[in-house]
Amino acid sequence: MELCSVCSQLVASDPVVGDQILGPYDELLLKSQSLGPGRAGCGGCEFFSTILQSSKTWSDRIPELSDHTITLSPDGLLVRALSGPIDLLREQVDYDLELTTCFTEEKRGRCVVMRLGAIRLLIRDHLDYQSNNTFLGMTLVSPNPRESSCFNLIDDWINQCTEHVKCSPLNPVALPKRVIEIPIDPLAPPRLRITNGALGRYVILSHCWGVKGLMTLTNSLLPQYQEAISLELLPNSFTDAIEISRRLCFRYIWIDALCIIQDNAEDWDQEAGKMASYYGLSTLMISATAAEDSSRGILNRRDVSRSPMLGKGKGFYLHQIVLRHSFQLDSSILSTRGWAAQERMLAPRILHYTRQQMIWECAECLFYEAFSSAGAIKTWHDVYSKSACQQFVTEALSQESTIPRYQDHNAKTLECGSKDISLDRIETWHQCVGMYSSRFLSVPTDKLHAIAGVARMLNHSGQLGEYLAGIWSTHLAVGLAWKKESRNLALPPFYIAPSWSWAGVEGGVDYKGVWSSTAIVDTNESWAKTFHPKLIDQHMILQNEHNVYGAVLEGSHIIVEGACLRYADFDQFFEAYEVGDHYVGQITLDMEDGQDFLGTCDFCMCLEGNLDCHESMDLLLLSWVDQEARVAQRVGIATILPPWQEEDAEQFTRTFKTASWERRTLKLV
């Protein structure tokens, strides 16, 4: 590949070498297309411009790069304006702008990659600004995921996972009713097997169905499938999943489209009720994370950029690093789907195939193909933690399978009536709701149904009480305190759940800032008796009377007794009480005026919190549906934050207590 005079003279990034000016961005763009009449473009310039053009940061801002100079420095690939002030916002670097410098040796007759530090594509406007950055344990991702090295890595991940305390063992379990049996011979066709309760280990597939006309199991095809399933007729994602399973030495795989009789309503209902257990008991879930539909396949070449050989003698090249960011999972096609979210919560270990690399997820770790095993990180997310969820899934399944029971002896419990309630469970549920609520469902009325499996697992022995359309009776006040995530929520075109349930709106919600389990334990009894709500009765009209975790019908409601205050008085409290510039609270309507506006807020009801302990407090904002009958609906949430100074906080609390609070019994719809 031809190089321009600049790229052919580059030296590998080194502090001694210093900056190497590549030239104005517009010039790089021209050279990438052609180096002159009858000549091809420069491969190096094409690499640099393509990285910028396809990056998350600059893909929508390409015109802004004009009249900027691109410089290769020891600290990174810098985009510099000729003049102007420092713009710190441009110092932000996304995962897809990371590069590593690689060298080659010919001693063994083949290319040997050696890691020697890393450079970054940084966006800077000031010549003197410098930063330090190093990356350890990086490995180069092969463009071909079918290579044996990729499967060796997966085997290594599986072996490490078996040593994890929080991860379930690889013991044989009762197989699903039907599985695809995979022959050892890659040329032999798989077949559908009726298991009759046999034990074994199996893989399960998570995928987007996508296009219509997908090959599925029907009553008429059942005998044929039991003899053989033609690989030529299967969509690419199915054949790839079978190949992955075979190369990992698994004999069985469960694929919903091929293992449930799609034109048999009775079979579908029976198997749908078992799917949560099927995912939870699987040894491994293969996730077609990047595939838009089942025709796209899983084992596709990875989109990881690599430059041509650069410099004098073409002695090194640059390789794009895909950093260990959850962005690759959370922005993928499959991760936008509601049903897939539940599958991810239930499966004990997941092998994600993204566009750039494989990612392993289990209860203890995230492993990234672009990093060595030493680069593994413990699972952590702002919204959802698999380590928190998995222990309860495993515990529930252990009561109905051969898996040894998992127990978290450190779980905090609080006696409520005659039941012990794991407070970690309610926090885990709220994390799951935060992850799930913004996901897309092709059938919007599946909102509660598509997370029913997780709800059943968390409440397998009734630890959380009655299930009220996504809210738990044992912690009703905390459950009602959900907030919209960022964007405005919307009302679905038809009824899905009551106004007080997060399932009754379209859009992401979260429980960030809601009281922690420690705060619940420390709640003052006197304060709770005065201000906290009490569930008097509930009436859930189930769409399916045999599934308490499924959809509910219009007319479902709860009867709640709580401390209420007219909104006019509450609003005056906010306006009148000021401590300097202190921010004392926030009022958030679920839907803003002009977009699915539910109505004016008439009054509020205290939920969870304790100002006596200088903690925050959440209040439910309500409007009357029928004031005479005391029927109300939710329109928003308010959060009160007491002042930092103790003296001010005490005065603030006294003012709050002396407001015209009145305990009322209301019907919330």
Give a quick summary of the entry.
By secondary structure, the chain is of the alpha+beta class. The protein is built from 18 helices and 30 strands.
Structure commentary:
The structure is a single chain. With 669 residues, the chain is α+β, with helices and mostly antiparallel strands. The chain has three domains: 117 residues, no CATH class; 225 residues, no CATH class; 256 residues, no CATH class. The chain has a nine-stranded mixed beta sheet, sandwiched between helices. It has a six-stranded mixed beta sheet with strand order 1-2-3-5-4-13. A hairpin with a 2-residue loop joins strand 2 and strand 3. Helix 1 packs across helix 2. It is globular and about 85 Å long. About 9% of the residues have low confidence. This is Heterokaryon incompatibility domain-containing protein.
Please give a handful of descriptors for the protein shown.
Heterokaryon incompatibility domain-containing protein, six-stranded mixed beta sheet, HET, single chain, 669 residues, alpha+beta, 30 strands, globular
- With helices defined by DSSP (H or I, 4 residues minimum), what is the helix count? 18
Reading side by side through the largest sheet, how are the strands ordered? 8-7-11-10-12-14-15-16-17
- State the low-pLDDT regions, or none: 86-93, 105-137, 402-421
Strand content: 15-25%
Tell me the overall shape: globular
End-to-end distance, in Å?
68 Å
Would you report the number of β strands? 30
Major β-sheet profile: 9 strands, mixed
Mean pLDDT: 81
**Helix content bin:** 10-25%
Give the number of domains: 3
How large is the radius of gyration?
Answer: 29 Å
Broad structural category = alpha+beta
